Amino acid sequence: MFVNQFLFLAAVLFCIGVYGVVARKNAVLMLMSIEIILNSVNINLLTFALRNGSTDGHVFALYIIAVAAAEVGVGLGLVLLVYRNKKTISVDDLSEMRG
Amino acid sequence: MNLFSSVDAEVLAPLTSGWFLEHAWLIPVVPAIAFALIILFGKRMPFKGSELGVLSMLASLVLSAGAGYQWIQRVNSATEEQFVDPVIKSWTWWQNAGFEFGIGQHIDGLSILVLFVVAFISTLVQIYSLEYLRGDRRYTHFFAALTLFSGGMLAMVLADNMMLLLLGWEIMGLCSFMLIGHWWEEDVNSKAALKAFFTVRVGDVGLLVGISMLYFAANDWTRENLDVSGFSIRGISAWALSGEPNSTVIMIAAIALFIACIGKSGQFPLHTWLPDAMAGPTPVSSLLHSSTMVVAGVYLVARLYPVFFVGLDIPGGGGNLIVIIGGITIVISAALAFVQNDIKRVLAYSTVSQLGYMMLGLGAGAWMPAVFHIFTHAFFKACLFLGAGSISHSASHHSFDMKRDMGGLRKVMPITFATWIISTLALCGVFPFSGFFSKDEIIDNVGHNGYGLFMIIALIGAFMTAAYMTRATYLTFFGKPRGASAGHADHGAHDAHAVHDSHDAHASSGPHESGLLITVPLIILSVLALSSGFLNATPFGESWERMKLWVEPRAAEVIDETHSGGPGESLVIILPSAEDSHSKSVCGSAQPEKGICYAPQLNHAPFKWLKAMMSLAIVFLGIAVSWVLSFRLFTKRDPRLVGLTQRVKILGVGHKFLVNKYYLDDFYEKVIVRNIAGPIASAAYWINQNILDGIIHKIASSSRLISGWVYRNIDQRVVDGAVNNSASFTKSVGTAAQPSQSGKVSQYGALLFSAAGVAALVLVIINT
């Protein structure tokens, strides 16, 4: 069982996702990065599910996929509304909430 | 021993194979890839993606034709009675915790036949659509969905296991939804699409139940004997015939699967979605009604025939679920076709009726004629639908109303007329058109296998088919031109589809023949409607029955009680008669010690010209009666016939009953939906009003009393003091922490992830 490779892949994907969330200014790209993070977690769950020979991890992964779909739906809706009001989706321009 | 594939290795000839057979799995893969390409790049292509669709279907056609050729070689390489092994390839899709889902191909005569028909009709329909949908606003999406639709059907047909079959089945359901609702701006169309989708879903529940039941019932046996999972079609077939299965389990599984087929193949009582599906563009109707989608249900029964054969006791005769549903469907849908004014709806009901014939044939043990009817029906029905499309496209201003906008078109559309007449004769089953060879065989075998009552129903159906098709032909092509085809159209009223097309200018020049992209597919299909029957021309003797040789699994020699005792006596296994048909195996007595049986024993009726003449006479009678009545009613306006339904009460009631489609739609919507959804809603309302509200009111009034006391004593004194103090504390903290609230999301993210990183680090340190 090549568990290490899977975990390594998941870790790399996770880092890419974190980098995207932190460094990107485009809201859509940030959403995509969040998806990458979620899917790297999925890979972890499936890896351990395969190693332990149980279906639990598969079930969790399916839940995450469903929740991720809902999250993207809400997120893109927000981005769309922000764009309509502000004509931009750069998150740096959205700092009305600063203290 | 022809029955058993694993015995007597020295007498079995080695079977040939070939590249096309080994790589038949490419047939659905090509359209699937083409679908992705059309969706992604279609709009930027020179022909808006349509060229990809047509090319992929052509590739599938070439692949399936090659596979067909090599399959025939394979059959010829076998000895006379050898079981021809299907070409099976299987890969693991995914596996976990003991479950394994495969993906692969199961290629035998049946799947090759249907693959070829689907690829062939799809190619012609796509070529036809190039012209028919030119300038449509969702041209690219139409071709994408059409390609995926064919791909789904092809995948379902060559599936080697039930999961892949289910996948293809559901892809088709989705694509039919997209295609029927192609012009979704009109409310009617999107409602029809939803109705098709949901009605089929009702049946799909049965498919899921059936697949799961078969898996859990068959898995142990198939693992032990064939080393395949309980999803494998080959495994399930062998298991059903092994004499192992519990008769109740296999019966319920067969019923569950058949419910899925009722939904998909538009059998009574779930046929209501099929005529409404006419809301889609005509090429879609043609494809959906001739080779894909509705044939899927019939194909499923033919594919898993051993399950139905054993589960529903098909060799027993008398009657079973499949023949009863098939028989009812034939007659009720043919009756509905008489009261339709929309030419496509007439064809839709005729499809439902013909599917009833296929089901009847399968249910009565006439496997080969029913499968052959899939083959011939695909050609003439596609031709009829495309002909109707040609009329609406070029002559009647996109109207399908026969009474208002058609009539007298035989002179202006000679090619459409000729192809229509050939296909109509094929549909009616007139010798020597293709429908005769398949439909008459079904009727004959149904009677031969002990289903006498249903043979009479099928003959009545043949009479009705001939009559309603004559009526439709008369209204469309004979008499005087009316409405749009006479040249004076009122655009606003009925021009439902024209708003979507930018090519409407040419239509105002009056009715004319359609262009080559439309007439060439029509001509090809009508030639096949005329000639395809000769591939299995039973009347001319054994040497003409090519299709039977290639497609029917050779369970045993053709056995007729009168012929047993010939030189092949030692090989012949007598079919269990009606009394002992409940014995352990339908394969024969020597089973299962000697090997594994994959196909049930099928019986064939000997052809007799007398019987054929009788059904032909019935057909001609139907044509003649209908012709005379149509002529008197629609052209002469005979006062004795006009308004007959208003004057004679009993006829009026019957007419109203038919026009309202037996009130089945009303029944589904008003009775089932309302009675299930209504009481739940009113019960919920009652609980809400009486119980919940009562509790809430009580709680509210008592809490009001308590809260007054609390406010005066605790809130004002204790709490407010604490709150004021904490507020001032919070304010000072907030001022200190203010700079970190920059409003920049990235910064928040960085803080979040670094905190998570620190937490992870702590966790690692603690655990080591």
Write the layout of secondary structure elements.
The complex is a heterodimer of chains A (99) and B (768).
Chain A: H1 3-23, H2 27-52, H3 56-86
Helix pairs in contact in A: 1-2, 2-3
Chain B: H1 19-22, H2 26-41, H3 50-77, E1 87-96, E2 99-107, H4 109-132, H5 139-158, H6 162-180, H7 187-225, H8 233-241, H9 247-264, H10 273-276, H11 282-290, H12 294-303, H13 305-311, H14 321-337, H15 343-363, H16 367-394, H17 402-405, H18 414-428, H19 434-448, H20 452-477, H21 491-494, H22 516-531, H23 546-551, H24 609-635, H25 644-647, H26 649-659, H27 664-737, H28 745-767
Antiparallel strand pairs in B: 1-2
**Unreliable sequence segments of chain A:** none
Mean pLDDT of chain A equals 88
As a whole number of angstroms, the C-alpha radius of gyration of chain B is 32 Å
Structural class by helix and strand composition of chain B: mainly alpha
What percentage of residues of chain A falls in helices of 4 or more residues?
over 70%
User: Mind telling me which CATH architecture of the domain at 25-90 in chain A this is?
Assistant: Orthogonal Bundle
Number of strand elements of chain A: 0
> Using DSSP, what is the number of strands of chain B?
2
- Poorly predicted regions of chain B: 1-10, 489-508, 556-585, 588-594
Helical run tally of chain B: 28
Spatially, the strands of the biggest sheet of chain B line up as 1-2
Derived from helix and strand composition plus strand pairing, the structural class of chain A reads mainly alpha
**Residue share in β-strands of chain A:** under 5%
Taking the alpha carbons of the first and last residues of chain A, their distance comes to 51 Å
Coarse shape of chain A: elongated
Question: Strand count, sense and closure of the main sheet of chain A?
Answer: none
Backbone CA Rg of chain A: 17 Å
Order of helix and strand elements from N to C terminus of chain A: HHH
Helix residue percentage of chain B: 55-70%
Span from first to last CA of chain B?
A: 69 Å
Largest sheet of chain B: 2 strands, antiparallel
